[in-house]
Amino acid sequence: MSKVVKFGGSSLANAEQFRKVASIIRGDKSRKYVVPSAPGKRFSNDTKVTDLLYDCYDLAQEGKDFKKALQVIRERYQDIIDGLKLEISLDREFEIIQEQFEKKAGRDYAASRGEYLNGIVLASYLGFTFIDAAEVIFFTGEDGTWDAQKTKEVLSQRLKDCKNAVIPGFYGSLPDGRIKTFSRGGSDITGSIVAQAAGVDVYENWTDVSGFLIADPRIIDNPKGIEVITYRELRELSYMGAGVLHEDAIFPVRQEGIPINIRNTNAPEDEGTWIVGSTCQKSKYVITGIAGKKGFCSVSVEKDMMNSEIGFGRKVLSAFEEQGISFEHMPSGIDTLTVFVHQDEFMSKEQKVVAGIHRMVKPDAIEIESDLALIAVVGRGMKSTRGTAGRIFSALAHSNVNVKMIDQGSSELNIIIGVENSDFETAIRAIYDIFVLTAI
Ligand code: ADP
Ligand code: ASP
Ligand code: MG
After folding, report:
1. I want to staple 373 with a disulfide (CB 3.0 to 4.6 A). Which of 152, 230, 294, 324 is the partner?
2. What is the rounded end-to-end Cα distance, in angstroms, of the chain?
3. Best CA proximity match to 411, nearest among 215, 236, 213, 289
């Protein structure tokens, strides 16, 4: 049995958290490869080291004095080193970082230093080999996407020679050697890549909650946990805002059928959530989880007989495409078609898109509504249960939530509901209550 263990920012925020992490790793010899994030928040209004690095680099890029800001970051690491009574010094590393900031090495380089330095400290504390992710995780030159093949070749070889190793999360390198990061929260992806390359049995992802919860704990008090969830369900939920695991983190492990186990560093005895390819285990409730995001606009295009007009949908979408806007959902009726887009992307291009739609399809009317939220209700159990959409409708009606849109995905794995931003939390509570609290 062997495992890759990834620890998130809050699990490595200070020396005390490092001690918990070390005891988890030492408690199970199969925890061979460790992927750390940068130090996260130590208390609720603290700032993550990654955010400090972005801000510090922005100062450097504007030609302003960034030394004080860099000193604050340095102290975060020094506190951890002192707290753990380690003999190492990061002086040379910080000299290099300062030089690179002066040379404007890039925002990705800057952000990546958070996990790089944390990796050095953790490897020293554990007595494990440190492997710089820039040497083993690669991105392609053309479009900057992750180079799966080259990474697998180099990383597998490197891990074969190592009994134990620490590989920092979040970044890798481009063919010219420059550092590139994944999107925010990307250490989860690194963990998955390392798990795939090492061919381990389990990818443990340690965070600050006891697994994937049915709903966001910042909205629902003490939500119930999910014991087992499939990759597909999880992807729907993480894409729609359940921030526990990066939505792209399942791909590398999915290819190898490696399960992910989400665990809590602060409650290591909890079993957490198992994320698997498929399962015959029924979920406890009809739904597996609820997640959602605010900040959408709907653009409804009305035209009599549009259904019989060949290419109508394509033409409407091309008006968005021309402006580089991707759409989120597109429910349609006989004479109307609605396109949901991210408000922040759409606002500055609204007039151009509307003009484009007029030009392409000559609609009878275009109606735009802003400040909408989308909620995804996800569950493999919905397929075999009648009346799920009806229950959602009546729960929302009881809570006086005006439903703007409801769209059942073709997979019958999810139902997407559009509501006003201001109804977002009420709607999530209503859905949680009807399916979980009052479940029979
Ligand atoms: P890490 O720093 O360990 O990567 P994240 O902050 O990325 O941790 O993810 C964990 C956080 O995700 C939790 O603290 C919680 O606030 C939030 N979260 C949002 N939705 C959910 C959910 N459905 N289940 C569990 N946590 C959730
Ligand atoms: N430190 C990075 C971030 O804050 C990556 C991660 O934590 O996964 O986004
Ligand atoms: Mg995370």
Report:
1. 294
2. 39
3. 236
In the numeric block, which tokens belong to residue 429?
Answer: 């509570």
- C-alpha span between 152 and 198 (Å, rounded): 9
Distances (CA, A) of 373 to 131, 396, 418: 42, 14, 6
Is residue 213 within 8 A of residue 225, CB to CB? The reply is yes
Question: To test the ligand 1 pocket, which listed residue (43, 187, 207, 290) has its Cβ within 8 A of the most ligand atoms?
Answer: 207
For residue 33, the SS3 value is strand
CA 88 to ligand 2 centroid distance, Å: 24
User: Could you tell me which CATH class the domain 289-439 is placed in?
Assistant: alpha beta
Domain ranges of the chain: 6-200, 289-439
Beta strands in 215-364 (DSSP E): 228-230, 260-264, 273-276, 289-302, 327-329, 336-342
* pLDDT tens track for 131-188: 999 999 999 987 889 999 999 999 999 999 899 999 999 999 999 999 999 999 999 9
User: Is the pTM higher than 0.85?
Assistant: yes
Contact 164, 123 (CB under 8 A): no
428: burial class by Cβ within 10 Å (0-12, 13-18, 19+)?
buried
Beta strand pairing call for 414-420 and 289-302: unpaired
Q: Cβ contacts of residue 123 below 8 Å, gap of 6+?
A: 129, 130, 165, 166
In degrees to the nearest 10, what's the CA dihedral of 331, 332, 333, 336? Answer: 120
Identity at 121, one-letter amino acid code: V
Residue-wise pLDDT for 278-300, tens only, equals 877 777 888 999 999 999 999 99
**Residue 358 CB coordination number (10 Å):** 13
Please state the separation of Cα 221 from the chain's center in Å.
22
Strands 414-420 and 405-408 turn out to be antiparallel
Q: Identify the H or E element spanning 154.
A: helix 148-160
* 211 ligand 1 Cβ < 6 A: no
Residue showing tokens 């609605």: 338
For residue 224, which of 290, 293, 292 has the smallest C-alpha distance? 290
Question: Among residues 308, 298, 247, 336, which one has the least CA distance to residue 417?
Answer: 298
Q: Is the CB of 238 under 6 A from ligand 1?
A: no
Residue nearest to atom 8 of ligand 2 (CA): 185
Q: Are the C-beta atoms of residues 147 and 140 closer than 8 Å to each other?
A: yes
- What's the chain's Rg over C-alpha atoms? 24
